[in-house]
Amino acid sequence: MDPSQLKYARTHEWVHLDGDVATIGISKFAVEELTDLVYIELPSAGDQVSKGASFGEVESVKAVSDLYSPVAGEVVEANNALADDLAALSDDPYGKGWVVRIRVSNPSDLDDLMDAAAYEEYCNSQG
Length: 127
Hints:
There is one protein chain. Strands 1-2-3-9-8-5 form a 6-stranded antiparallel β-sheet. The protein has a 3-stranded antiparallel β-sheet with strand order 4-6-7, with no helix packed on it. It has a single domain (3-107), classed as CATH 2.40.50.100. The protein is an alpha+beta fold. The longest helix is centred in the C-terminal third of the chain and has 10 residues, at 116-125. It is built from 3 helices and 9 strands; from the N terminus they run βββαβββββαβα.
């Protein structure tokens, strides 16, 4: 995925929409803030998620952080390979490190998300 073409949430998740399915991951900025990742908890296919609600968590040596869904819908696939290879999340957050795919129930959910330039500005303002 090309990070410049993605949409971003203030909670540092990125979104790529393909038809009605959103692939979601966490940004490089978030991965770098978390540092050494040790655990990830993901939803199961068929789970319903709400926009802005937690759908899982990622744990690092520094903290446990919730993963928030930028869209509402049904989980169609979780990247369960991450449980055995968290390095993919750090090494390739926009590729092999994707987290979940959700069939979006309301495409207008993406209207609230930032483009890459706005997200970069937001991250810079976070210190």
